[in-house]
From TrEMBL:
<dbReference type="Pfam" id="PF19489">
    <property type="entry name" value="SLT_4"/>
</dbReference>
<protein>
    <submittedName>
        <fullName>Lytic transglycosylase</fullName>
    </submittedName>
</protein>
<dbReference type="InterPro" id="IPR023346">
    <property type="entry name" value="Lysozyme-like_dom_sf"/>
</dbReference>
<feature type="domain" description="Transglycosylase SLT">
    <location>
        <begin position="9"/>
        <end position="174"/>
    </location>
</feature>
<dbReference type="InterPro" id="IPR045795">
    <property type="entry name" value="SLT_4"/>
</dbReference>
<keyword id="KW-0732">Signal</keyword>
<feature type="signal peptide">
    <location>
        <begin position="1"/>
        <end position="22"/>
    </location>
</feature>
């Protein structure tokens, strides 16, 4: 009982602290973002050390996926083109991680308190994902184009990315 209350208090504290961090003024300038949010720099560097994922790639993925919006989520499908019905996917937060992959990350890294709205947890997830893409698909960690495609399409759909022409221009931007 005390343990559950502690977890709840911890979750609420993290939510409160995370909500106090404002979105960057200019999401196209990484240096300015790191000046405004020094801890973001520390978190991304920690992820780079832990997983070998380049800082630039992690930041480019977040910019492309959520534009640094901690509450980013996909558009709603609509009934009768008006009534919001359900989200197009379960992607959420800075990393736009879907439920199934996020759950795998939480299990494999033994981080049951990780939150998709936390910048620290999101960059840790992205670093983990880049590392797994390197292991599973043999994509070099510095191949930003293919790493982004693997991130966006998923490990299972990577080989068919040419059938999804929308992702190629996005990957070129990364």
């Amino acid at each position: 009982m005390i343990r559950n209350r502690f977890k709840l208090l911890l979750y609420l504290s993290l939510l409160f602290i995370t909500s106090c961090i404002s979105a960057p003024r200019d999401t196209s300038n990484t240096c300015l973002m790191f000046t405004d949010n020094y801890f973001w720099y520390k978190f991304v560097k920690n992820s780079e050390k832990k997983w070998g994922a380049p800082v630039e790639l992690q930041m480019a993925i977040i910019q492309r996926e959520s534009d640094f919006d901690w509450l980013a989520a996909p558009e709603w499908d609509k009934l009768f083109k008006v009534i919001p019905y359900k989200r197009k996917s379960s992607a959420f937060g800075y990393s736009q991680a879907v439920n199934k992959t996020w759950d795998q990350f939480v299990r494999e890294t033994d981080q049951p308190l990780a939150l998709r709205i936390s910048f620290n947890d999101s960059v840790d997830f992205i670093g983990w994902y880049i590392n797994k893409s390197n292991q599973i698909l043999k994509i070099p960690k510095d191949d930003y184009f293919k790493q982004y495609i693997a991130y966006h399409e998923g490990w299972g759909n990577f080989k068919d990315y040419k059938k999804s022409p929308k992702v190629i221009p996005y990957a070129r931007e990364v």
